[in-house]
Design brief:
By secondary structure, the protein is α/β, with parallel strands linked by helices. It contains 16 helices and 5 strands. Belongs to the HARBI1 family.
């Protein structure tokens, strides 16, 4: 007991190891081994004996040491994102459990979460580490041959710059950690080339999360722009289009026609559990989009988002009823051409019932 009390600085009397040692010294062999050890080995030997007989408590102490290392790394790397509230809560739980030597499975789970956080923000190897950034590539395309811009963004360079200026001026596209130019280029690159998130991330040297966030934000901007762009021009319905007036095949039979309405099926990417309503007669997931086109081959209305199995007439009637969609109703005496999938009603002229119309016959 005198020898144990001499170790008071390292083994206080109220320490769990102190009472473990008293109990162990009741065994003569253990007591003799302890008394014949050097002073600098006594504490190590007692801890070793304690760990062998109390593996759970020993593991908890190791967990506490690991947490101390984690926190030291957190504080030394102040520019790293802070721990989430969930991670902090779980850390408090494990610290409490370890302090009471009450180890259970949750401690191992919490330690794993902290290790993942540490590897993600402190010891990770950068994935997008190319010096050739996305902004550099965009600058090179816009300063290069016109065909490069057409191949990458499906528009000439002057149209790209005009679109960029319009989005910044009227639709809230702003610079951030990613420039407005790169945001537009990234979204056009995905839309026009049907690129995946991973390919876009590699092309622009951005994380998949950043690419996804920018693309979603740009879709909302494009949607707002579409409301202002895909509509009839002022006074368009008052004049007879030149395509009708100067073509004997149409004039004067279609002098009051202002456009045509039809549905088109566009491929849709949906999760397997949601695909059934989107699979129609084409045998693949599609969305049915109703579009209105004038004789200048410009869209003046579009109604996307419907499942591929939806009937054209249902989409048509919804477009007429919902005022917020701003469907361009025909003025009195004017009409749209529609096919047999749409109802016959004032302002909408379908094919004569019982007749079959074919382009070869028309020519």
């Amino acid at each position: 007991m005198d020898a144990l009390r001499d170790l008071g600085d390292e083994i206080p009397k109220k320490d769990e190891l102190y009472y473990f040692s008293i109990k162990m010294f009741q065994i003569p062999v253990k007591r003799e081994v302890f008394l014949n050890l050097d002073l600098d080995v006594m504490v190590w030997w007692l801890r070793r004996e304690y760990a062998e007989q109390n593996p759970i408590a020993s593991f908890s102490s190791l967990v506490m040491d690991e947490f101390n290392n984690m926190y030291n790394s957190f504080y030394m790397n102040y520019d790293t994102p802070e721990l989430s509230e969930e991670t902090q809560r779980r850390i408090v739980t494990i610290v409490t459990q370890v302090e009471h030597n009450n180890y259970h499975e949750e401690e191992e789970q919490v330690l794993s979460s902290v290790l993942v956080h540490h590897e993600t923000y402190f010891t990770m190897q950068p994935c997008m580490d190319s010096n050739y950034t996305g902004q550099m590539w965009v600058d090179e395309v816009l300063n290069g041959h016109d065909d490069r811009c057409m191949n990458s963004f499906r528009m000439p360079k002057n149209i790209f710059h005009s679109l960029l200026h319009d989005l910044q001026t009227n639709y809230g596209l702003k610079h951030g950690k990613v420039s407005a130019m790169e945001k537009l280029a990234l979204s056009l690159y995905i839309l026009e080339n049907r690129e995946s998130n991973s390919n876009a991330a590699e092309r622009f040297q951005r994380s998949g999360e950043t690419v996804s966030r920018i693309f979603i934000d740009m879709l909302y901007i494009f949607a707002r722009m579409g409301i202002d762009t895909i509509k009839p021009t002022e006074g368009q319905f008052e004049e007879v289009p030149n395509h009708i007036r100067h073509d004997t095949r149409y004039w004067p039979h279609f002098k009051d026609c202002i456009g045509a309405i039809d549905g088109t099926h566009i491929k849709a990417c949906t999760s397997p559990s949601c695909q059934i309503p989107y699979i129609g007669r084409k045998g693949e997931p599609t969305q049915n989009i109703m579009a209105v086109c004038n004789f200048n081959m410009c869209f003046i209305f579009a109604f996307p988002g419907w499942e591929g199995t939806t009937y054209d007439s249902r989409i048509f009637l919804q477009a007429l009823r919902k005022q917020e969609l701003k469907f361009p109703h025909p003025p009195p005496g004017k009409y749209y051409l529609v096919d047999s999938g749409y109802p016959q009603m004032a302002g909408f002229l379908g094919p004569y019932r019982g007749e079959r119309y074919h382009l070869p016959d028309f020519h």
